[in-house]
Amino acid sequence: MIWDDHQGRCIGELSFRSQVRAVRLRRDRIVVALEHKVLVYNFADLKLLHQIETLSNVKGLIALSSSAETTVLACPGLHKGQPDSGGLLQQVRVELYDVRRTKFISAHNNALSQMALSLDGK
To answer: Any bridge partners for residue 3, and if so which?
Structure first.
């Protein structure tokens, strides 16, 4: 349920077949992390804009830029990254919506435990 304090009422509702692991909000987007998927919705009409498959994400790791000038989303990737001396690196997927580009970063030998972006996502 999405509650509008200003209006004092429910303005929408989203339901999912699996447990919601995390939610991130900004004025124009709602991002929901499920264990194997990240869903991006338009806040105004709750239309699904993007669906991203991920590796198991039980911690609900997602990061969303809060600046109105840029829309950047980071989440676990679908595959392990490049091999390293300690094994395969954990992959992070970065969606740069304003320039319509996706980047993959081989980030860490162990499982990811935290994810954050700067305010402007840069």
So the answer is: 10
What pLDDT was estimated at residue 21?
97
- Within the chain, what is the greatest distance between any pair of CA atoms? 56
What does the pLDDT look like over 79-92, one tens digit per residue?
A: 765 555 455 568 89
* pLDDT over 60 at 41, yes or no: yes
Report the amino acid identity of residue 52. I
Q: What is the dihedral of CA 22, 39, 77, 24, to 10 degrees?
A: -40
- Check the CA dihedral 79-83-87-90 and report its sign: negative
Q: What is the pLDDT of residue 82?
A: 55
Whether the CB-CB separation of 49 and 43 falls below 8 Å is answered with: no
CA–CA distance, 95 with 112 (Å, rounded to integer): 18
The residues near 101 (Cβ < 8 Å, ≥ 6 apart) are none
Give residue 102's Cα distance to chain centre.
13
The pair of structure tokens assigned to 100 is 């319509």
Using alpha carbons, select from 84, 80, 110 the residue that is nearest to residue 92: 80
